[in-house]
Amino acid sequence: MSELRWDPLKLHWVIIATERGRRPRDFQVEPETGEVTSCPFCYGNEDKTPGEIFAIRPAGPPNSPNWRVRVIPNKYPALRIEGGLDSRGYGLYDVMNGIGAHEVIVETPDHHREMADLTPAEITDVLVAYRTRFLDLRRDMRFRYMVLFKNHGSRAGATLAHAHSQLIAVPLTPPVAATELKICREYYANKERCIVCDLIAFELASGDRVVREFTNFVILTPYASCFPFELRLYPKRHAHDFAQLDDAQLAELAVALKEMLLRLKTVLKDPPFNFILHTAPPQQQRLGKPEYWSSIEYDYHWHIELVPRLTQIAGFEWGTGFYINPTSPEDAAAFLREAEI
Amino acid sequence: MSELRWDPLKLHWVIIATERGRRPRDFQVEPETGEVTSCPFCYGNEDKTPGEIFAIRPAGPPNSPNWRVRVIPNKYPALRIEGGLDSRGYGLYDVMNGIGAHEVIVETPDHHREMADLTPAEITDVLVAYRTRFLDLRRDMRFRYMVLFKNHGSRAGATLAHAHSQLIAVPLTPPVAATELKICREYYANKERCIVCDLIAFELASGDRVVREFTNFVILTPYASCFPFELRLYPKRHAHDFAQLDDAQLAELAVALKEMLLRLKTVLKDPPFNFILHTAPPQQQRLGKPEYWSSIEYDYHWHIELVPRLTQIAGFEWGTGFYINPTSPEDAAAFLREAEI
Q1: In this complex, how many residue pairs, one in chain A and one in chain B, have their CB atoms less than 8 Å apart?
Q2: For B89-132, what is each residue's pLDDT tens digit?
Q3: Residues A23, B315: C-beta atoms closer than 8 Å
Q4: Residue B313's closest chain A neighbor by CA?
Q5: What is the domain extent for residue A131?
Q6: Is residue B29 part of a domain?
Q7: CB-based contact (8 Å) between A157 and chain B?
Q8: Strands across the sheet with B303-308, in order?
């Protein structure tokens, strides 16, 4: 069982997941190259993964081939679904059991296609899988937040090359989400407007950081980007919850997401990246911390944040929380806008 | 001139340092290997760097060879010393000029020795250079904080292989420091004790996470370590300010620092790492934000934090602020304690 440990000096929780079993020599090993013959995410290797949780497949039984998207439990989960939190003190510290869910969404059966190469219809399938899993995990009252993210490339933390994303449900609101929720709530309390809607209006009027505008979505480089070619994909009309999108909206989002990934791949020659889906926490969990939820439908604006991993997070960044970005967001937006895809 | 930009959604400042000049193709390039012939930090190449700010050399004029430690301005500074902040608003954002100092401490003239290989006397020279620069930069009232850090290895962000550390003076208290200062102050306000002194007492009594104890220093793995083999080096007796250490104390610290680096190098086969010196901000700057300073001599405890860069910061970490650590701090401490150095 992994542990969640609290640092009273840093004010953060850390997941100590020793079942992933790293001894000193393990860190000498390079990331797996993901040879097709042994890749557990490939067609025909369905028995090499834990049993599937969800799949989109035209016909056939679970865990058989012939699927388009497949969701499985992570074989080496950071958090486990069984048990109680058992939160307790330990000296000046705090500790609780590592309870949560850790799932993998395999985006395509084809080992050689990454998400940017999929058709909008295929990406829509992936988004449907995301939505399905969000809605299902929300029924578990122990989970305060769900984090949907994708690591692409070994420098971005991917240990398998086959295209996949991950969904982790955590028993606490993470610090990044807590800050975002607080900012949105306070801005709304003062102005009765969504801060993200205001930012989008400002950015569309300026145009300097707009990469691409669609009818219902916009791709921007953030004004205070921490990293070169950082990107955000926003729905233009206010909406707090990704999981409430209907199929037609997911299909539109798939077009925008593909374009974001393809422009990045073209300009930077397939860079490593992470993207994270930021969406409102589940309705049911509102009971826990009422101060978060009074106006969330109006104050929170779901979106996708993408961070290419071109530069290292070094001593200065880790030691201060300040980031040094050598590429201006305006230049990055221009390069991405002008790319021929 | 670089810019400091404020993100009103993330509540952080970012340094946009475009003079470092990164266009898309620049990110294809691998880090420099630091060939000896062209290394600007080597003996005889003193004219390849900006003029030195400080050096320890037995005899001879500035910028001549025959030095032991040399401090120079960074050739590609993230922040520049000349000018005013000119803080101003821009839409929902804020921006100010990138004012600060960015110096490089070359730790040895020998290209092939890293800090762990230096003698305690040579490391003492490096620490004397750190102290000298801290005390000098504190005279500039524009700087709120100084960050002394070392990036070792390209995966830890080092662009030159030759052993060096960096000192950046910033015109704002960084978020990591602000949190640490606040925690220490609040704990002291409640208990009239230093939180770090209390943690050290708990850790010495437990022993589980102690790597090595000296007369006046102790090396620990933090209970809630974010990364495998994370380390902290603390003075056992309360002291808030590294820059007030005398020569004898620096010589004792050099012995402890060398041992920390050497144990890490031995167990993990010369891993990439960052270390950051956490010390109290300068006395003069107390005027700016009085709430930070009322009890800092009693509540703040200087120390060194070291983070090996064995695992990637991936989508989950970036998207949540939670870290997943696959090696327990107790196991890491045992491996480091038992290493034969």
Answers
A1: 267
A2: 999 999 999 999 999 999 999 999 999 999 999 999 999 999 99
A3: no
A4: A157
A5: 101-338
A6: no
A7: yes
A8: B54-56, B69-73, B101-106, B164-170, B145-152, B273-278, B303-308, B231-235, B217-220, B210-213
